[in-house]
Automatic annotation (TrEMBL), chains A, B:
Name by which UniProt lists this protein: TetR/AcrR family transcriptional regulator
Family matches, as InterPro entries: Homeodomain-like_sf, HTH-type_TetR-like_transc_reg, HTH_TetR
UniProt keyword list: DNA-binding, Transcription, Transcription regulation
Origin species: Mycolicibacterium komossense
Matches recorded under Gene3D superfamilies: Tetracycline Repressor, domain 2
Residue ranges of domain HTH tetR-type in the record: 13-73
UniProt DNA-binding region: 36-55
Any Pfam family: TetR_N
Length: 201, 201
């Protein structure tokens, strides 16, 4: 058993990261609501006191899991919004979101969890990001049809990049997701090197 | 407070259905893992004993929620498999699944919940249904690309028919979902009256 005192030395960052990694794993297997701090403690052989040293609540831990993903999302959205043309903007959003989902498979679980979205939606900054992300995709067609299409593509990419598809190579999975998203949204594959580069990242 | 004795009379079917309806509502808002039998009891002003009269565990209640949906899914899959041609089969599966998701918005929540899919996947009959459903859509393209496309379409339709889109008319939502699915899978809208009828149902 690691004690809070032992963790409070120079291993503090590593311990924090291990807690986050185990939380991602348990959220992916049992959903957010189905994962307790006690389960995370048990998985690591920690006491609950050792966890409290880093995270007081499960919600704080969720924040730590979600924050870097949101930060990347914010960058992708900002880049997309600066491009000229509805199609180029949608394409950048699509390829960026697919890369994010493939690299962070917990997105599949968290994006679809009503307990998680309720919590995140209650924060203005997250709510605004989701709206901007939706708008970038929905503007290709406009109206409610465009909104539904955007929702299908985002939910579909999240869902299909989940733990069930762990057997497919990341680069292949990303390419298939982007192809499917483009067809669903009615986008043509751009020939610019920018998009090719972001697909390979 | 209703007592178990009071419920055991001719109101027994109604009470069972009310329990299921409240469960659907709470699963939709808080996820399956985030909903306890106690919460369901509180919502209805029942004692927990009254609920035990109908469902011993939350899992039994989930079964009661899921069973009629699975039964409809089984019918749609069976109908699709009897059609001639990969495209006709995929199109019937697509339109049928979209109708199911639009009419049972809890599908959006349950389909994406790892706690739920773990439980359902452990039953052979459900696992086999999912595989047949995936195959009907994946066969349009074949290989891993076809599988990913099928997964995007199924997860996308589930996700986009969830509680967030409660404001769109069901018939419109169904039409947009089917259009998006057809484009994603590379299906042309068929001209036969069969599909038109099922889209309007």
């Amino acid at each position: 058993m690691a004690t809070a005192a032992a963790l409070a030395t120079d291993g503090v960052t590593d311990t924090r990261q291990r807690l986050i990694d185990v939380a991602v794993d348990l959220f992916t297997r049992h959903s957010f609501a189905g994962t307790s701090l006690q389960m995370i403690a048990d998985e690591l052989g920690f006491t609950k006191a050792a966890i409290y040293h880093h995270f007081r609540t499960r919600e704080q831990l969720l924040d730590a899991v979600v924050e870097p993903i949101l930060e990347r999302l914010r960058v992708i959205i900002g880049e997309a919004e600066e491009l000229r043309g509805v199609h180029a903007r949608a394409d950048h959003m699509l390829t960026g979101f697919a890369a994010l989902a493939v690299e962070n498979r917990v997105v599949a679980v968290l994006a679809a969890d009503p307990a998680v979205s309720e919590m995140l939606r209650s924060r203005r900054v997250w709510d605004e990001l989701i709206d901007r992300q939706m708008a970038l995709l929905a503007d290709v067609e406009g109206g409610p049809a465009g909104m539904v299409k955007a929702a299908v593509v985002l939910a579909g990419i999240s869902g299909a990049s989940g733990p069930n598809f762990a057997g497919i190579e990341r680069a292949d999975l990303h390419r298939y997701l982007v192809e499917t998203g483009r067809r669903a949204l009615g986008l043509r594959a751009p020939r610019s090197s920018r998009t090719t580069a972001s697909e390979e990242s």
